Amino acid sequence: MHARLYARLKLAGLEDHPLREHLNSEFHARLPIPLASPLVVSHLVFKHDGTTAPLERDNLSRLCQSTVCQSIESSDAHLMLDAGSYRLRWELHTEFSSYTFSRPLAVGEPLDPDSTALEAVLPEWLAAIPGQLIVATHVELRSIAEMSPESATAGFSPNGRQMVAVKIADGAAWVFTDFMFDNGFSRFLVLDVSMTQRQAGRAVQRVLEIETYRMMALLGLPVAKKVGQWLNGAEKQLAALMDQIGQTRSPDDERAALGSLSRLAAEVEHSVARTTFRFGASRAYHSLVMQRIEDLREVRVAGFQTMNEFMQRRLLPAMDTCAAMAGRQDDLSGRVARNSQLLRTRVDVELERQNQELLAQMNNRAKLQLRLQETVEGLSVVAITYYGSQLVQYLAKGGKYLFPGLSPEIATAVSIPLIAALSLFGIKRMRKALSEDEAAGQ
User: Fold this and answer.
1) Which of 11, 52, 89, 178 is the Cys-Cys partner for 161 at CB 3.0 to 4.6 Å?
2) 0.85 cut: is pTM over it?
């Protein structure tokens, strides 16, 4: 029926999104593998920079060259191989890759405490895995018919270590661990009371994810401690700058303080950029740890801690430290920004005052220029009147031969007021015309 419907969709001319098949396959990837007890599982996680996929694929292909492998599942970021004596599940994540080896045991088969599921894997092949080992954990899945919870309690936690012992899946299984390293591995013991194979697969997968995400979450703690040491100095530096700003007495002092604040702001933003991803990832991994613990549906065993209690006492303080350092960084960034803005405002106010003084000086100079111009205009009237009267005098001297009764001195004296009045009128008219042109241009 689904095939016929899909064909009808194709016939209808509907276009598939290019990621439709990939997203659906990703949704169904990494499902729990059905497991039957007794079984041993060894889980390795390698931290990388996100560019190791081709190298890991090549290394996985070399594994199949040395042994007969059967591919059960395969995708770009997931692979499951059956090598006969063991099974391998490879998963590629954003910043780490996981290799999960599982090997079945015979019922009642004793297991050396140092034994793992890696015994059939060549050490040279393991050494060629790209990245740095961040998680190595060992899970032993046994039936309660083979091992009692009391014997597990006695043998799993030597030297008086604090141990986690819980019932999970509404009492269908027991889980024991102390989260400590023995020969490089953290170790879990899962006792199957009444689980189905799929339940056992889910339980083991959740235990492995809890350990993986616990260690990945803790990667933020060293970063938080380092940032905390830097923040102590940066906060003291900011306090000293605030004192310096309060004591500034000149624009040069304010500009020097603003330069120091700008350098501190750059350092803060650099620190935020370096640590934002790590703190955010730790927060996300911690959320996954707590979610996987909740999925186990723990039931307390008298005298022992639950996983939730263990994480609340051991992991949560580390995550709170990361959150506190991230908060302090954001707070310091905001304080630096506010103080920088305050200091810039002071500098801007000082610049505005200086600009006002310059404008006042320019206004005074303009007034002086206007007065000088008016003085020059008066002198211009006098000069024009003088030269104009001289011309009249010359004309009157030449005209007395035509008009004997004309006196050159009287003609010159009469012309002086007329020439002065006409010159003054012309200058004022020209000034008015220039003012109108200027107003029209504005």
Assistant:
1) 178
2) no
